[in-house]
Write a structure and sequence with these properties.
By secondary structure, this protein is mainly α. It has twelve helices and no strands.
């Protein structure tokens, strides 16, 4: 049952990403990284439907996580990239080449292999006052660097960097959410007198803006893989640093985790090299315009 719920969650996430990208890709490039992008998208029924699908996928993912270990559920959720590629091809009528399918499978499969063999365990309840949360500042600094480089890069590189930054923030969001849930046992007063729920809202909004900006710049096959790879890896790293989770470091599992990371990076590189027609700043008629003639 967990397997079915996990795949259903990944399917909804993939559907949500496709709908959001289809709506965001029609926005002028001048709105990229500007709050007006989100304000305008809030008036787009297709984007709202995609947001609803994404929230539904997150809820199903939470249900799956409530009945199984993270190492069993996260690889299933990481297949949202494959679902998005399939749905994107059907909806946008984009003819994906074999190397794009290979890149998508390698990126999602690498994540699955890393998480499956890493098996984080031994979580320690960490309060909001713990100095371990300073790792979040390092995460934010990395995001700022990626955004800064992306602003001066070509559309393709910009989309990948902004998507990676969004995925990192989504991973941070997962960690902060876990911290908030740990505080529930101390009562609502303990939750709202800490910094975590307010940081959660800010991180979620910034992550959403970066993701939509990446979708605005390029098709899903360029923008989504980086986000798909960055989120679970960031979550796992913060789990180790903040919640003192442990990874399997014996020779066999460690080698498998390294192979998984190499597959993930290779998949992202393959997808990033996929050709597409640059978007005009004035108008984009639809997904089909992203294809080469």
């Amino acid at each position: 049952m967990i397997f079915i719920i996990g795949l259903a969650a990944a399917g909804l996430l993939g559907l949500g990403f496709v709908a959001q990208q289809h709506a965001a890709y029609r926005e002028p490039l001048g709105r990229m990284l500007h709050p007006s992008l989100l304000l305008d998208l809030l008036h787009k029924p297709l984007w709202l439907a995609g947001l609803a699908a994404m929230v539904g996928g997150q809820i199903l993912g939470a249900v799956a996580l409530s009945g199984a270990d993270v190492s069993k559920v996260e690889p299933l959720l990481a297949t949202n990239l494959v679902f998005a590629l399939v749905i994107g091809r059907i909806v946008c009528k984009e003819n994906l080449k074999w190397n794009e399918w290979l890149g998508g499978l390698m990126a999602s499969g690498g994540i699955a292999l890393f998480l499956l063999l890493g098996r984080p365990h031994g979580e320690h309840p960490t309060g909001p006052e713990s100095g371990r949360w300073l790792a979040a500042a390092g995460i934010v600094f990395i995001v700022l660097i990626l955004v800064g480089i992306g602003r001066r890069s070509s559309l393709q590189i910009r989309a990948m960097l902004l998507a990676a930054a969004a995925g990192i923030l989504f991973g941070l969001q997962d960690a902060v959410t876990r911290g908030v849930l740990i505080r529930i046992g101390h009562g609502l007063g303990a939750i709202f007198t800490s910094w975590q729920p307010y940081a959660l809202v800010i991180v979620a909004i910034c992550g959403l803006l970066l993701a939509q900006s990446a979708f605005d710049a390029a098709p899903l096959r360029v923008s989504l893989p980086a986000a798909t790879a960055a989120e679970p890896i960031t979550g796992i790293l913060l789990g180790v640093v903040v919640f003192t989770e442990r990874l399997r470091l014996s020779t066999g599992p460690l080698a498998g985790q390294i192979v998984g990371l190499a597959m993930m990076v290779a998949g992202i590189v393959i997808l990033g090299r996929s050709p597409y027609m640059a978007k005009r700043d004035d108008d984009v008629a639809g997904c089909a315009e992203a294809r080469l003639p």
